[in-house]
UniProtKB/TrEMBL annotation:
Keyword tags: DNA-binding, Transcription, Transcription regulation
Domain HTH arsR-type stretches: 15-112
Transmembrane feature ranges: none
Domain of life where this protein originates: Bacteria
Organism encoding this protein: Amycolatopsis silviterrae
Name of the protein described by the UniProt record: ArsR/SmtB family transcription factor
InterPro entries: ArsR-like_HTH, HTH_ArsR_DNA-bd_dom, HTH_MetalResp_TranReg, WH-like_DNA-bd_sf, WH_DNA-bd_sf
Length: 125
């Protein structure tokens, strides 16, 4: 007898998803050191925005690679991009950072109590 789609193999229950789908996308967007470094560089200047030119000066990498990393954060909803003349300006969107807190809050899936697994029927790898 199989479990319904999306249910945990160990507990047999559907995992809590209070913001976890969106949080998963956001955590992935921040999962490398460059992603972590970009957020404060964009958040702290006046106006909470940063020009691509200024960001490129901070990182020793080709501009195309930096552009790719910024595009990932824009796609995840962490940043918005606005073209002004020759340059792109990036703005931090604060709401997604709040979404990242939900899985870490009390009762969230990353800090809530771990349910005992009933693995009497579960086959081990």
């Amino acid at each position: 007898m199989g479990l319904p789609e999306g249910h945990c193999l160990l507990s047999g229950r559907r995992p809590r998803t209070r913001g976890t789908d969106q949080a998963s996308v956001l955590f992935k967007a921040l999962a490398d050191p460059l992603g972590i470094r970009l957020v404060p560089l964009i958040r702290h200047p006046p106006g909470r925005e940063a020009c691509f030119r200024d960001l490129a000066e901070e990182f020793a990498m080709p501009r195309a690679r930096l552009s790719h990393h910024l595009r990932i954060r824009v796609s995840a909803g962490l940043l918005t991009r606005e073209s002004r003349g020759t340059w792109s300006w990036y703005h931090l969107v604060p709401e997604p950072l709040e979404t990242l807190r939900a899985p870490l809050d009390d009762g969230g899936p990353l800090v809530g109590p771990i349910a005992p697994a009933d693995n009497s029927d579960a086959a081990c790898c």
